[in-house]
Batch of 2 targets.
Target 1
Amino acid sequence: MKNRVEDVENAVTVSVDTINEQIVIAAALVDEDIRKTYVLKESADRFADADHALIWDGIRTVMQRGKGFDIQQLHAEISGKVNLDYLRKLVERYPQAPINMQQHISQLRWDHARKAAAEGSIPDFLRALKDSGSSPTMVQQCADRVARSLDVKLDRSFMSNPKLIAQKQSEVIRQRKEGQACYPYGIAELDKFPSGENRLIPGAAPGKVTLITGASGSGKSVIAGLIALQQARLGRKVLMGAWEMGAGDTLEMMTVMSYNMPHPQTGSLVPTGKSVRSRYAISTGALQDDELDTFTERMEKLAEWIRFFDPPFHHDPGKIYTNDESLSEIHRMVADSGCEVVVYDLWERCIPDGSPGPERRALFVQQQIQKRTNTHGVLVCQQKIKEIERKADKRPGRETILGSSAWVDIADTILGIYRPAHAKNIPDDTMETLVLKQRYGKWPMAIAHDWDGDRMTLSGGRDVEYEFSGSIETGKLVF
């Protein structure tokens, strides 16, 4: 009881300028430049009013889809969570953006700092100050915390708004209930079990990370490109770092795939001539002029949805830079692109220092980039080729990923790519996808597909058993 009485005595209540919050929200609704300048950079947690936080978060989500912004899309995003008539009233009350938007943002930050201090550091300081048993050092430390919590030059948005996070998670649960919780990769037998139930959960979901790994030449870039293609066909904007194969060759490969792989929603194929369906024909230039025109037109259409980007500082080869500088640039690129899915092939090429400690830290930063931008990250990495060659089973494993153990830590899903013809004298007509980790679903699993390297197709996926998954020396299971 004493603690409860002390909490009441030390409680501090501050008034927050909700009118200012309304002005900020309305400005973002009516002004595109303000949305681009502030929405992706300011956290929804800065808003004291829960409805304002949900609206801001909804604006942010719509913008990240990269399909333009309008009130109708926002309505669909926040319907059931916020009274939609409230949006109309805000726009009617503040039809034009304020002259000095930065002043209103500063007020928003100051109110957030005051409220956070009133709920955290100030009661702690008052409690220590009143307690005769508190040492001078402890009281001074509490006072320093108060001062730091009121420093609005720093980002004090690390404390989540409890109501906002609860309501957002409630929406996630509702989507699960309605069967909308999984985001397909667009590869039929990888997305679903034969029964029709979801195999990979939550799949290519926003804010999550998929890791694709395999030995050199196994088909990692093929699967990364296929996922990028199918995500674009599902209406998601893709940012593609084709740092292994190069942008032109990757776009060419995906275009061949687009003629031969069924659409993930309709199952239909694009009707066209034989040559543009053949990677060999494209690679050797065995095309008629009209076929080349057809192929070029399709590449242009794909490139509108799958935008390519270079590693940071690629155009300044003489620059000496750090992992932090590179990842900061990656964060900017992803945020500015408006994409929903980002592919990094190979991710290691975006950091200058790949030694174990710096790489580990960089991977955790990369994971946070996907969370902060609400985008799905597809990271491609190599296997330790010498260790693979020593194993009886040549398939990739988690323990043979090249680099830090953080690769496994940050991934929500790990897909290992393997072509048996690389280890045995057999036709190269099969590709296996090994599910080496699933944060929310069953693993390990192996799905074997019929593989056509000329048409760049996977088909006829079926579950296969692991015959052996261990080292020559011990036979210990690698999963």
Target 2
Amino acid sequence: MKVNNTLNIPEKHILIVGNRSYRNLGDELILLWTVKLLQQEWKKITISAYDPERLKKFFSQLIDISNITFVTEIPKGIRSWIRYISQGKLRERKLYKKTDAVIIGWGEIITEENKNSYRYRLVSILPCLKKPRYLMGGIQLPKKLFNRLLFKAILKRTKHIFARDQETVNDLKKYGFQDVEFFMDTSYFAYDWKKTRHLSLVTRNYVIINLNKNAEKFLPEIIQDVKKLYNQWYEVMYVPVAKGKNSHYSDIEYARKIQKGTEIKDQRFTILDREDDFKYFVKMVSQAHMVISSRLHLFLIANFIGIPTKVYPYQKKILKMQETLANIAKK
């Protein structure tokens, strides 16, 4: 399976929208390399985000953001619309309209495993519905009638799809959309992972773990994994990959549940932040004994670096990405 890292997008001013709402490492790494690819092609870039200032702060560690315009994402609900209007964000809509094309990019961007996925993708581009668009990520063909109608609306002005797994490519071609190609999840390129691999030669006496709301059913198994490793004298570092406000995007809640279930004392159960100093975070992952995760992109980072990983796949996307990585490795 060939890994291509060139975006064939002729338009000059590109708007990138997607799920940038929940301080999720995976979404941010996907966005990071998408931006890098566009910068290499001298594109003008506008990014839609839930919290533009926080995203700017994170990205400033890794790329030059001086020529990137950050705008607030289009609200999805009544309360967010009230806040959007009260904060004077309506005037930002003209910045959406100034762009030439839109990339709807994320992980599994369109899937019925996430409620309202199809509707949210359309809402996110309301000010520029007539602009040509490109889809990047994983896509699942809808089964529900309303979602099928929304999916047709999304595809209506879609020029090309960069799909992150071969199953998506095959399904879309069978569906009748031929302008689709395999394009590896852009987190694959987001960081120079090869430079960190020498660090993995010096493994330390700790493991890194993560659990999220969607994979809560695996909590008893992860507790048993952690107990076993703790009894072998490994310290435990918990990474809150997503740091949102609601339970589905607040991984830190599961740090407390795991620590309580394993009865590990504070000095041997610590929190590893991935946001304030990303280079330090990557270094710590590089020297871990192993990574146990239910979040796709913590699994991917460990895989890119070459750290042993145990993954709990709560969604099909994780299984598809494991297959994709295996196919790339064969080449």
